[in-house]
Amino acid sequence: MADQPTIVLVHGFWGGAAHWANVVVELHRRGHDRIRAVENPLTSLADDAERTRKMIGQADGPVVLVGHSYGGAVITEAGDLPNVKALVYVAAFAPDAGESPGRLSEEMPPAAFENIAPDSDGYLWIRPEKFRESFAQDLGADEALVMAVTQKAPLGSTFGDAVTAPAWRAKPSWYQVSTEDRMIHPDNERRMAARMNPRKTIELDASHASLASRPREVCDLIDLAVRETS
Fold this sequence. Notes:
Blueprint: E1 6-10, H1 21-29, E2 35-38, H2 45-58, E3 63-69, H3 71-78, E4 84-92, H4 101-107, E5 116-118, E6 124-126, H5 131-135, H6 141-149, E7 173-178, H7 186-196, E8 200-204, H8 210-213, H9 215-229
């Protein structure tokens, strides 16, 4: 698919680029040969947006940006580059100008909010014994265990970092709602999706980890964004 755009995958809190493993395999199976996955530091929205912009800048030609969870805030902040042709949100934050993931969560607290705990260095963790029920209740025990043990904690201050100029106001977008999400309230996802007026919204009976549990449907949405912007 030499004529296809580069698909850049942006992870969220409590995981790294490997959270996209099942999506990467499925996209490759479908013939996509331009796939990149950003490894963000999760130290601030500015840091993560800059790292993502650098990955976008390495792409030769158009880019479809895909963000999961907090990665949605990152693509909202970093998606203003001219070669970004589409934004795909996967159970993700889509803040407006001046909004942060923390503010959006406080407005509509998710079911597992209380299972997030800070450490003495200012990083936020999902309690390991609560990880599967909070983040990935539709994954097998072994897969959820690996996610829990290898979770990548963000600096707590990152939750409060606000978006400046939301890219979804200028770029076509697509959104996937997880109806059983316990990390972002499903109604919050619906609210964020509705106000961006996406080309398409889909709802999956899935946990927050829909990128791992429902990769085929997530890839269907990415494929749609690719087709409609190529």
